[in-house]
Each structure stands twice: as C-alpha cells, then as structure tokens.
Amino acid sequence: xxxxxxxxxxxxxxxxxxxxxxxxxxxxxxxxxxxxxxxxxxxxxxxxxxxxxxxxxxxxxxxxxxxxxxxxxxxxxxxxxxxxxxxxxxxxxxxxxxxxxxxxxxxxxxx
Length: 111
Hints:
five-stranded mixed beta sheet; four-stranded mixed beta sheet
C-alpha cells in the first residue's frame, strides 16, 4: 500500500513540475501572398512555445528569416512549412521574406 501511495505521489509531483513553457505549442498561420505576409503582425503568448505555419501561396519560393528569432527557412512555392519558436519573452520580433524584403515584412508580438 505504501508503494502505491509513493507512486501516486511521484506522478502528482511530476505533473506539477510541467511548466507552461513545456505545454504543447499553440499554432498560428501566416500566409505569403503577392510577396507579403498576411497578417503582417501576429500576437502570441509570451513564455509559451509557438508553432508558425507559413503558407506560401505564391508560385515562387520565399525564405522566412528572423534575426530576432534566430530562424530561417526556405519555403517552396505553393507549400507550407512549420517553424517552432519560443518560449519568447514579452516583446517584438521582426521577420522578413529574404527574397522580397521590400514587401515581405512582419512582426511577432509576444505578450
């Protein structure tokens, strides 16, 4: 009986040690269309892992690049890619489409 209680207590303690940062990532979608990001600004929860699904609806490839987020990924035309970020501190993180930097600009706002 004591060993069953010990196992139950250990399981309960382990479940309490899972922080918000360890929770499954929330997913947000950004579309690339006409060499622009839509939406150009995405608000995400601070302190949590996030998945960005980047849906490139243009026929040409684009490179999602963010020095702030330390991420870059080439996304072929008419395909999607998933980029994991975070957990982020509250703040603003810029990104661009490297192949079309004049028009493809965006921002992740963590709050």
